[in-house]
Amino acid sequence: MGKEVEMIRKHPLYVAYYEKLKQAEHGRKFCCHQMEHLLAVARIAYILNLERNLGIRKEVIYAAALLHDIGKYEQYTDGVPHEEASARIAEQIFAELPGEAFSGEEKRQMIRAIRGHRREREGMEPLEELLYVSDKRSRNCFACESEAACNWSPEKKNCSIVL
Ligand SMILES: [Fe+2]
User: Fold this and answer.
1) DSSP label at residue 155
2) Would you tell me which CATH number, out of the four given (3.30.2310.20, 1.20.1070.10, 1.10.3210.10, 3.90.1150.10), belongs to the domain 3-149?
3) 37 C-alpha vs ligand 1 centroid, how far in Å?
4) CA-closest candidate to residue 44, choices 143, 134, 144
C-alpha cells in the first residue's frame, strides 16, 4: 500500500522542488511546508474522510497532501501563487506516472484540490474542501512562539486544540 505515493515523493521533479523549498525555509520562524506539515495534512484529511464517510482512496488523499505546497518555492522567489505552481508541478509529475497509479478522474480531483486549497468558497469538491480544512487545522498556532507576529487572521488561527 502506498507505492503510488512513494512514486511521487521520489520523482526527480518532486525531489528537486522539495529540496529548494527546504533551503528557502531554513531558519524560518513561521510555518514551514515540509514533510511534517504535508503528512499532518494527509493524516487529518484521512481522519476526516473516514468521519464523513467520503470514501476517498487513501492514496489519493496522501498524494494530494504531499503535492499541495510543493510549488511554494516559486512563491518565495517569483511571487507565483503556490497553489498554481503546485498544481502545475503535480500535473507534470502525474503525466510521468504509470497509468495504473491513479485514474484520470482521481488526477483531475487532486489537481483541483491543490489549486483550490487556499480559499474556502461555494461549490468546493469533497477532496478540495478536505485539503483546505486539513491544511488549516494542521497548524498548532496555540503552541507557536511566532503566533503574535504571524499574519494569519485571528479567525484562521487555531487558538485551541480543535477535535
Ligand atoms: Fe499547506
Assistant:
1) T
2) 1.10.3210.10
3) 7
4) 134
Q: Per-residue pLDDT for the chain (163 aa), expressed as one digit of tens each? A: 789 999 999 999 999 999 999 999 999 999 999 999 999 999 999 999 999 999 999 999 999 999 999 999 999 999 999 999 999 999 999 999 999 999 999 999 999 999 999 999 999 999 999 999 999 999 999 999 999 999 999 988 999 998 8
**Nearest Cα to 132, choosing from 143, 123, 145?**
123
Residues near ligand 1 ion, CB 5 Å cutoff: 69, 135
Integer Rg of the chain from CA: 15
Distance of CA 55 from the midpoint of ligand 1 (Å): 22
Could you tell me the distance, in angstroms and rounded to a whole number, from the CA of residue 82 to the centre of ligand 1?
A: 10
The model's pTM: 0.96
